[in-house]
Amino acid sequence: MSDTTIKISESIRDRLRTLAEERGMSTRAYVERVVAATPTETERAERTARAVAYVQAHLREDFTEGDVREAQEWRAAIAEGRLGSRR
Known about the structure:
The protein is mainly α. It is built from 4 helices and no strands.
């Protein structure tokens, strides 16, 4: 395994350290876990395509990409506080 240096602000470094410590992990292990668990845009698109195919095959044949976009817009509106409330 090779070492890589990434320049970040002290406040982010300290936050990473705190988040890692709260989970009983080293900062390195925590960063590796977070990065490994975060999907790329390509992976997200593939996951969405699989989900749409499943819904069309098993739940609703007329489900479209438009339905997906509408759901994504709805979710974004909730996250931005423009609709409903977050718990």
